[in-house]
Each structure stands twice: as structure tokens, then as C-alpha cells.
Amino acid sequence: MKKLILVTGGSRSGKSNFAENLCMDRSNSTAYIATSIPFDDEMKDRVRKHKESRPNNWKTYEVYKDIYKNIDDISKRHQTVILDCVTLLINNLMFEYGIDFDKCTPQEANKMEDYIKDQIEKLVIEINKTDLYFVVVTNELGMSLVPDNKLCRIYSDIVGRINQYIAKCSDEVYFVVSGIPMKIKE
Fold it and tell me: Are 1 and 170 in contact (CB under 8 A)?
């Protein structure tokens, strides 16, 4: 059954666990698109724990760039997909983009955001061409104060706008707080 679902929440809110539970009994062929780049021991440990919590028959794809190019192939092999998570995907794309965040102009930041939004729009277009049950996980950053440094403000703004776009395109949206999911769009 074709469906795009967004699961959002704060850090360590239980959103990944909820997303995995949504997919647990759907099919024997679940793809897990992991967007993190484990750059230190703590991140490597997080990734290890996430992998150990998944069923053995789930296939993990570690990719954060041009994910849309993989969707057709994934849809031929799987019926259910989890993408975890959009915030790490955006983080990785921002740093790969290679601008100096302390010195960049608003125009340079906007150009980078356009590049990131293009990646997400192409992903949604490719998802919509399939019959996949597709669950996207992201962090909700918009419930805190405006960050006091330029890099964090740029990041928070981009994540907020990308999350809004994905929510608009989604069939269902869940907000997870302290492990409790609340359906906010159906």
C-alpha cells in the first residue's frame, strides 16, 4: 500500500523506534536508509545499537546524497522503506557543500538550501512513482530558542523548511514525545 509517512520528534524521543514499529509487520522486505556518517566512537556506538535493534531480514543502505537515484532499485527489492534521518542528511549535505558558515552571505546560504531542497524534492518525486510504504524520520528543531550562532541558525531554518515540505507531501505525520506517538496529520 503506497504511503508516505513523516515521523518527527525531539532527540531521543523514540521516533526511530516508532518508525520501525510502523514497518515491523508490513513485509519481509524492508529497506533501511541510514543517513548518518559515524565520525567518532559515540556515533559508531549509536549506529551499532540501531542496527542491532532491527530485524535481521532488513537491508540497510548507508547513503545521504542523491538518495532519489536509489529509489527505483529499492522499490524493485522492497515494499517498505525507512529513511532515518532527514536532519543528519541535511547536516551531511551542508558540510559537503563546503561554504564557510561564519563568512557566508545570505545568498550563499540560500543557494545551499536550494541544493538541499532539490535533493528532497527529487526524493519525494521518486517515492511517488512507486508503491512503497515509505517512512521518513526527522528531528523537530522548531520548539527551542533561535540559535545564537550563524551555522546553527542556518541549519535550524533549513531543517524547519524541509520538514514542512515533507509534512505537506506526506499522507500521515506523527509527532513523538517521550516515546508516545501522536498522529497530527491523516
Answer: no
Of the residues 3, 26, 50, 153, only one is catalytic, namely 50
SS3 127: helix
Q: How far apart are CA 29 and CA 64, in angstroms?
A: 21
Q: What confidence tens digit (pLDDT) does each residue in 141-171 have?
A: 988 888 889 999 999 999 999 999 999 999 9
Residue 153 C-alpha cell reads as 541558525
Q: Give the model confidence (pLDDT) of 33-81 as tens digits.
A: 999 888 889 888 888 887 888 888 899 999 989 999 999 999 999 999 9
- Annotated active-site residue 78? The verdict is no
Homologous superfamily (CATH) of 3-185 is P-loop containing nucleotide triphosphate hydrolases (3.40.50.300)
Query: What predicted TM-score, i.e. pTM, was given to this entire model?
Result: 0.94
Q: What is the pLDDT of residues 80-92, one digit of tens each?
A: 999 999 999 999 9
What is d(CA 93, CA 39) in angstroms, rounded to the nearest whole number? Answer: 15
Q: Residue count of the chain, please give it.
A: 186
Domain ranges of the chain: 3-185
Longest CA pairwise span in the chain (Å): 49
**CA–CA dist 11, 34 (Å, integer):** 16
Instruction: Give dist(CA 182, CA 103) in Å, integer.
Output: 40
Residue 110 in this model has a pLDDT that exceeds 90: yes
